[in-house]
Design a protein that fits this description.
single chain; alpha+beta; 8 helices; about 25% helix
Length: about 325
């Protein structure tokens, strides 16, 4: 049996902020998004300043505070931005660093991708961004063609190997609630069903396999601590397909929030770690934690210590909080 600390964190717009138009290679900015090799990303990072300061020191502090072996991230523009963030910010606070990185360009035209930083070896990296409703034998929401892609961003599948043991992770960032939670719910339901189909295809018996689905699922089971039933994540929870780790280990709903929405002053758990039944059975009565020191001061429900420099609205680490836990797993490679 091995132990591993997993974290999920929506970094909020971890984007490049430089104008490359004056460089002799006029299409350099476009080329950066095509970089898929960590070595190439390192070369670009050494040559160009691809991230502005903004809130990235606070983002790095929040992520480093998890002490995670594997960090599953959302809202990362490309592998170059991820590399620059790691080398120039995260390494200041997390001295060990993360030698393994994964990011495959997804479907979001704004460059909002999912990514993985890992200290454990990544032995498998698979993007599911190209999957259509036809590919997954699914009925699309009303008005959506069957050949349309299911995921608005991606479902990035990685295998993590540690001490001869393997754990499979599915990193997701579902459709936002922009346009209305009720109106966008069917999109998230479809993404949740697609994720379930992918897991069922990967494992002949998903309940007995060891896997976790992590990320920003953009839906909640409670709002401001009050339970709600009208969410779009049913396919992941129906029939005990998976277990929401925070909901199972943190009885107080008002303590499970991971996102502060300043416009409405609301607190909700949009970020989740879903475990297979087998993995959940291995990990009963464990600590599931958040890092809230990077939240803006206006998120007044949190009264604990903030990182130096946090402001009323900005600077901040993100509008999300890292969610993390240390898990036992024993799947053989």
């Amino acid at each position: 049996m091995s132990q591993i600390t997993l974290a999920t964190f929506n970094c909020e717009n971890l984007m490049m902020r430089c104008d490359f138009s004056a460089h002799p290679i006029s299409n350099l900015a476009r080329k950066l998004t095509a970089v898929s090799d960590p070595g190439q990303a390192e070369e670009v990072d050494r040559a160009f300043n691809v991230l502005s300061e903004d809130d990235r020191t606070l983002t790095a502090q929040a992520l480093a505070a998890t002490g995670a072996d594997v960090c599953c991230l959302q809202e990362v523009e490309n592998l170059v931005a991820l590399t620059a963030f790691h080398n120039r910010y995260l390494r200041r606070w997390s001295r060990r660093g993360y030698p393994y990185r994964a990011l495959i360009e997804g479907n979001d035209t704004r460059g909002i991708d999912v990514a993985v930083l890992s200290r454990a070896k990544l032995t498998r990296r698979v993007s599911h961004a190209a999957l259509s409703f036809t590919d997954l034998e699914m009925t699309p929401p009303k008005g959506v063609p069957t050949d349309a892609r299911v995921f608005r961003r991606d479902c990035l599948e990685v295998d993590v190997e540690k001490q001869g043991r393997r754990l499979t992770l599915f990193v997701c960032h579902f459709k936002s609630m922009n346009g209305g939670r009720a109106k966008t719910r069917t999109v998230r339901q479809a993404e949740a069903m697609a994720l379930r189909r992918i897991i069922e295809r990967r494992f002949p018996n998903p309940a007995n396999a060891e896997w976790a689905a992590l990320g920003d699922f953009n839906d909640y089971f409670e709002l401001d601590g009050v339970p709600v039933e009208d969410h779009g994540l049913g396919p992941l929870l129906d029939d005990g397909f998976s277990v929401d780790l925070a909901a199972s280990q943190m009885p107080a709903a008002e303590q499970r929030w991971t996102h502060f929405y300043g416009k409405r002053e609301t607190y909700a758990a949009l970020d989740h770690i879903f475990l297979s039944p087998a993995l959940a059975a291995r990990n009963q009565k464990i600590d599931v934690k958040h890092v809230r020191g990077g939240q803006p001061l206006r998120a007044e429900r949190y009264s604990g210590r903030r990182f130096p420099g946090v402001g009323w609205s900005r600077p901040k680490a993100s509008d999300h909080c890292p969610l993390f836990a240390r898990l036992d797993f024993g799947g053989a490679t």
